[in-house]
C-alpha cells in the first residue's frame, strides 16, 4: 500500500513538472493587484526565439487574464511588459483579452514594449514606462533567407512542381516574382493598417497621427510620452499607484502570476526557426527548409 502511494505521489509530481502550471504568489484575500508578465517574443506557444530564452505564450497569458478577471479579490491588473513583439495572431489574442477586463489594466513597460508588445500595451487603460524604455516600432515585417544565388553557384536546380500559382510563394530556393512580391506586400499592408487602427482606437488618437508614427521607428519613453503613446514615465511603484487610483482602493497586496518551465522543453522540443523583426509579422521556416510562409 505504501509503495502504491509513493508511486502515485511521484507520478503526480512528475506530471506537474512536465506539463507546467500557472502559479500565483501573494495574498488571496482583500484587495489585490495581479502582476502578469509578458516577457520575450510573443507567440501562441511561447517557444521564443532560437538560442534565446523562451518567450511569452498568448495561450497562457489569456488564461491568466481570465483568472484575474474572475477573481473578485483582484481589483486591478498590471501587465509587466518586456518584449520586442512577436506574431500577429498572438499579439492580437492578448490585446483582445485585455479589452475584456471589466477592471483596470495598467501596462508597465520596462526595457522594451515594441511592435506587438506595444499593441498589447495600447489596449490597457494606462501605460507607464521608463524614460529610457523602447516604445513603438509600429509596423509589420516579413523576411526570410533566399538561397537561389547560392544554388546557381553550385549548379543546383530547383524543380518547381505546384498545383497553384502561389503555392510555393516564399520558398528560399527561388527569387520572388514581381507578382508574388506585390501579393506579399498587399497582405502586409492589410495587417499594418489594422495595427494602426487598433492603436488609434485603443489610445483615443486619430488614425492619421498614428499613421505618421507607424514607420517602424522606436521611441524612447521620454519621446513616447510627448507623442501620447504612453501616459506616464515611471516604474513599478508608479504602476501600482495608478492601479490603486483607477481601482479606487487605498491599499493592496500583489499577486504574481508565473508559469513553470515545461520539463520536456529541454529534451524533446523541436522548435522551428522564425524571424522576429521590428514589426509584428513573422515568417516561419519549417525544419527541412521547404518553404517560408507568413503567419498572421
Structure description:
With about 300 residues, this protein is α/β, with parallel strands linked by helices. It has a single domain (about 20-260, about 270-295), classed as 2-enoyl-CoA Hydratase, Chain A, domain 1, CATH 3.90.226. The protein is built from ten helices and 14 strands. The strands form three sheets. Strands 1, 2, 5, 6, 7, 8, 9, 10 and 11 form a nine-stranded mixed β-sheet that branches. The protein has a three-stranded antiparallel β-sheet with strand order 12-13-14, with no helix packed on it. A hairpin with a 5-residue loop joins strand 12 and strand 13 (about 280-285). The longest helix has 26 residues, at about 180-205. Residues about 5-25 and about 260-295 have low confidence and may be disordered.
Strand content: 15-25%
- For the record, the count of structural domains works out to 1
CATH homologous superfamily placement:
2-enoyl-CoA Hydratase, Chain A, domain 1
Which architecture name does CATH use? Alpha-Beta Complex
What is the CA-atom radius of gyration, in angstroms? 22 Å
Amino acid at each position: 500500500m505504501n509503495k502504491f502511494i509513493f508511486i502515485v505521489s511521484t507520478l503526480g509530481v512528475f506530471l506537474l513538472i512536465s506539463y507546467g502550471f500557472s502559479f500565483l504568489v501573494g495574498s488571496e484575500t482583500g484587495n489585490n493587484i495581479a502582476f502578469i508578465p509578458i516577457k520575450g517574443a510573443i507567440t501562441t506557444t511561447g517557444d521564443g526565439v532560437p538560442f534565446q530564452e523562451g518567450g511569452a505564450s498568448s495561450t497562457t497569458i489569456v488564461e491568466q487574464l481570465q483568472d484575474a478577471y474572475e477573481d473578485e479579490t483582484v481589483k486591478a491588473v498590471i501587465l509587466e511588459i518586456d518584449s520586442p513583439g512577436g506574431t500577429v495572431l498572438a499579439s492580437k489574442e492578448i490585446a483582445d483579452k485585455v479589452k475584456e477586463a471589466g477592471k483596470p489594466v495598467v501596462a508597465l513597460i520596462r526595457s522594451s514594449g515594441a511592435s506587438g508588445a506595444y499593441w498589447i500595451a495600447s489596449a490597457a487603460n494606462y501605460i507607464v514606462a521608463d524614460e529610457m524604455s523602447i516604445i513603438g516600432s509600429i509596423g509589420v515585417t516579413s523576411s526570410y533567407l533566399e538561397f537561389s544565388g547560392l544554388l546557381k553557384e553550385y549548379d543546383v536546380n530547383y524543380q518547381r512542381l505546384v498545383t497553384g500559382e502561389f503555392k510555393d510563394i516564399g520558398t528560399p530556393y527561388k527569387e520572388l516574382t514581381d507578382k508574388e512580391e506585390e501579393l506579399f506586400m498587399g497582405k502586409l499592408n492589410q495587417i499594418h493598417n489594422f495595427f494602426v487602427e487598433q492603436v488609434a482606437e485603443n489610445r483615443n488618437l486619430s488614425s492619421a497621427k498614428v499613421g505618421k508614427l507607424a514607420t517602424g521607428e522606436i521611441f524612447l519613453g521620454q519621446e513616447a510620452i510627448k507623442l501620447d503613446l504612453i501616459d506616464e514615465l515611471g516604474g513599478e511603484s508608479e504602476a501600482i499607484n495608478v492601479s490603486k487610483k483607477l481601482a479606487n482602493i487605498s491599499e493592496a497586496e500583489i499577486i504574481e502570476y508565473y508559469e513553470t518551465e515545461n520539463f520536456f522543453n529541454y529534451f524533446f522540443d523541436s522548435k522551428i526557426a522564425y524571424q522576429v523583426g521590428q514589426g509584428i509579422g513573422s515568417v516561419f521556416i519549417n525544419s527541412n527548409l521547404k518553404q517560408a510562409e507568413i503567419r498572421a
